[in-house]
User: What shape does this take?
Amino acid sequence: LPLSIAHLGHCDQIGLIVRHIDSQGFLRVNSIGGWDTQILLGQRMLVHTASGVLPGVIARKPIHLLDPDERKSAPKLKELWIDIGSASEAETRSPVRIGDWATPEPCFHELLNGRISSPALDDRAGLWVVLTALRKVAESGPAVRVCVLSAVQEEIGLRGATTGAFTVAPDVAIAVDVTHATDCPGIDQNEFGRIELGRGPVVVRGPNANPRVVELLLERATATGIPVQINALGAPASNDAATLQLTRGGVATGLVTIPNRYMHSPVEMIARSDLEQAADLLAAFCLAVRPETSFIP
Assistant: This one.
């Protein structure tokens, strides 16, 4: 087929990597992706080793033993450790190697109003959307080639999207990721816009977004009754849309995002309806594209 569309969602999540095993057997770690260290305190973790998964916890000395200055400040990552219950360095080194990684213990909750909370919704939510959209498109028979990329290492530099999109060489690409929901306390909507859970997926306008891709997404949303929100970025996105746009000689790129509260935490929150409507929107977009469709602005 003469025209190809790629949808992309990244499957990696933020985590930690073991850099040192100290003399007491505690795991000292560096970050994989961006963490707020205050979020890590008190978390149950899973350490992924060659012999299996080991449970562990992250904590620090009790509040009773913190001096006044310590109580006022967030700890640095180098001051934290993962405790797997080991009694010695030798015992820890038996299953754990330098370079093993750790992730928060999975914990999925169904909340009120069709909302869900879990680690790694950034960006397993987007991956679910693109896979579901592909199934919907396949059932209807598209007029152009449609494929899905499940990209890795987005959190450390958009690396999987770079190699994957080069290989697939699409004419059109839409990245699906999460975006910050601003409908909770402490976020200035004057600065970050009004993005709400349950009000539909977000179509992004800005440097990475091809105007014709955006307009077709919005036209399909109106025609099919899919609610959407619009967000604007004044600089390249910090997600896979930025590298999709620059693949080979350039790709007509779109960015559709899912509102997400508490991003980069083990309690990320999204609305199921936003996921389902995003998948419907991507499917409607693909089915509207014909071999002769031009995305030249």
Summary: The two ends are 22 Å apart (CA to CA). The mean pLDDT is 96.
